[in-house]
Amino acid sequence: MIGSLPILRGLAGFNKDWLRSDIPAGLSIAAVGLPSAIAYPAIAGLPPETGIYASIVAPIAYAIFGPSRLLIVGPDAATMTVLAAAMAAIIAAEPSAANVDRVAIASALALGVGVFCIAAKLLRLGVLASFLSRPILVGFFAGVSLSILVGQIGRFTGVKIESEGLLAPVLEILGKSALIHWPSFLFGLSMFAVLWIVRAFNLKVPGPVLVVVVSVILSALFDFRGHGIAVVGDVPSGFPSLSLPAFHQMPLDKIVLGSAAVFLVSFGAGIVTARSFGSRTGEEVDANQELIGLGAANIAPGLFGSFPISMSDSRTAINLSTGGISQAAGLVSAATLIAALVFLHSALRILPIPALAAILATAAISLIDVYELKKIWRISHMEFVFALIAMWGAISFGVLNGVVVAVAATFVYLLRKTMFPRDGLLGHIEGRHGFFDLARFPEARPVEGAAVFAIQGNILFYNADYLRMRLTAVAKDLAPGTKCLVLDASAITHIDSTGAAALDALAGILAKRDIVFAITDLSEESRGILERAGVIKAIGAHNLFNGREEALRALLGNAAGS
């Protein structure tokens, strides 16, 4: 029956035998997810229980509405950093918002992200995930990681840091070095070292789990709070009631803009995660369907006093490595965290803040994908530059503005790629069929009495002037006796009015030299534009052909197109 319900695709075909795999997987997901669920809210200045709430309700919502069997959603460091910036902008923009509970603002943003997801699904805008290319995301996350690292200075040292940015907090702590609480600092560094030792030796116990257990035990034995080491403090043992945040007390324009920024990063990074794991498991990833699952997984935390989430690569990796089969693993992890909230809140209360700082610092460093940056440099120096631009934007302008810089860098990159489309004169190679680029094949020879020119891209307002100059240069350099210039438009899918004007100018130049201008393989949409612009009338409808060979046979004779 479950398989017949489209909203339960992650549980389709479920049978009880799967529980032998899904229960251990769910327990492992909860064990690994609990430390990050407690630590990540600190990035946005939220209480630790909000991370547990998000790690409970989001997987339940995704299990119901999400399309994937194996993806696990939850708190994400990059998403939390963008959330922190959005919340800061909201509080700064509206003095009355400063009196609103920070949790309420985070919940409002989570609901906003969910609404954006649903709206994008209805408009079939899953392609938005492609706006942040892999190089842009790698660079942006590297910048975000540095912001997270700097944000842990106060938690490591026990010193309240007033300044923001990248260098200012470093300079501030240097000036306040006499205030550093050295027991906190040394304990935080020791837990940071434990995390890297676990990773270096590939121990079976997850590093964050080990750090939380050891920290709680040491805190209980040696009364860390009594010795000045900050601890988490009271953690509610109950679950929040279903409620809506007080939108009327918040600047709605900032809520919308903040939600859009969080949505773009959360969905962009989430789809990268989904496709990465999908390539390993053979599971098809439909970005538009994932919008429904991600939307529900964000609306649920918004209704239960929490914050926006994304697809979690670490939790999904644990699910795969421990043999999870369906979304039942996510439901088991949620149930386990509910038990932890009820029975372990006393232990969580004495968890040292420097231990959370160590977990966050390690998570931040893991966001810096040095291998991927090297790979991007090896593949394309230009894409590496855009990765650096995205990283610089997140560092220099703040994370929220860094999203704008990253998106702008993406569009600049796309424009750069399409502004100078590949083009060239074509000719024949003796003994071989077809046409060949004269610049790429030295043995190719131009067609006698004709010039065949191909453009592999659209002719639009931002490249029309460049292509007009290219075509004009070709027209002026045509050898004496050339009867026609044939434009191969088979790779041109769109021509706008500016592009039409460029072709009209070329037609005028060729007409003065008594050279026929012909176009082949013109799309219906482009033909309509050229007809309305008068270009077809200028060159003659009889000079439009369905192929280069047909055009040359008609213009030069039967032997020309062979």
Automatic annotation (TrEMBL):
Alphabetic keyword roster: Membrane, Transmembrane, Transmembrane helix
GO cellular component, one term: membrane
The keyword Transferase appears for this protein: no
Residues covered by the STAS domain: 440-555
Subcellular location: Membrane
Any GO BP: transmembrane transport
Bilayer-crossing regions: 25-46, 52-72, 79-97, 103-123, 135-158, 178-198, 205-222, 255-274, 324-344, 350-372, 384-415
Membrane protein topology class: Multi-pass membrane protein
Database matches in Pfam families: STAS (PF01740), Sulfate_transp (PF00916)
Principal subcellular localisation of the protein: membrane
Superkingdom of origin: Bacteria
Keyword flag Transmembrane helix: yes
Record-linked PANTHER family: SULFATE TRANSPORTER (PTHR11814)
Name this polypeptide is given: High affinity sulphate transporter 1
Species of origin: Rhizobium tibeticum
